[in-house]
Amino acid sequence: MAPVEDPSENVWLDEDAGPVVRPYAMTRGRTRPSSGDFDLIALIVATQSSPAGVAGLGPEHLEIVAMCARPQSVAEISAHLDLPVGIVRVLLGDLLDGGLILVREPRRTTQLPSEPVLKAVISGLRSL
């Protein structure tokens, strides 16, 4: 007689959310993107509208490409997919490697002052 499994132990379906897929399954266990840095406010733009013929892409990859027909920030993509930012960064790295997206990193708004400027400030503060 075969042992009877308790159905509550192998629940892969959440009544409200649908099938449960662990984030590490989407990234095949990877925790960092293979390429790219992906700042939260970096803008992502798709290079093609329909990458259906590209092998190795999951449904999340395809959804990202569809979303990014118009520029989207990494934070917006994460919120729309309801996935952690780390997972989205790994997926974006896959798309970047495949040439399916472009990344527009935010410009640095502040630059450190030069050494002579810092020395002048220190000198001015000492004279007070």
Q: Mind explaining what this structure looks like?
A:
With 128 residues, the chain is α+β, with helices and mostly antiparallel strands. The protein has a domain at 21-108: Arc Repressor Mutant, subunit A, CATH 1.10.10. The chain is built from five helices and five strands, in the order E-E-H-E-H-E-H-H-E-H. The strands form two sheets. Strands 4-3-5 form a three-stranded antiparallel beta sheet. Strand 1 (13-14) and strand 2 form a beta hairpin. Helix 3 crosses helix 4 (85-97). It is elongated.
Helix content: 25-40%
Report the order of strands and helices.
Answer: EEHEHEHHEH
Please outline the major beta sheet. 3 strands, antiparallel
What is the typical, i.e. mean, pLDDT?
A: 81
The end-to-end span amounts to 91 Å
- What form results from the Cα inertia axes? elongated
Fill in the CATH topology of the domain at 21-108: Arc Repressor Mutant, subunit A
Number of strands: 5
Strand content: 5-15%
Number of helices: 5
* CATH architecture classification of the domain at 21-108: Orthogonal Bundle
Low-confidence stretches: none
Structural class: alpha+beta
Which strands sit side by side, in order, in the main sheet? 4-3-5
Question: What does the radius of gyration come to?
Answer: 23 Å
CATH class of the domain at 21-108: Mainly Alpha
Quickly describe the structure:
This protein has 128 residues and is α+β, with helices and mostly antiparallel strands. It is built from 5 helices and 5 strands, in the order ββαβαβααβα. The protein has a domain of 88 residues: Orthogonal Bundle (Arc Repressor Mutant, subunit A).
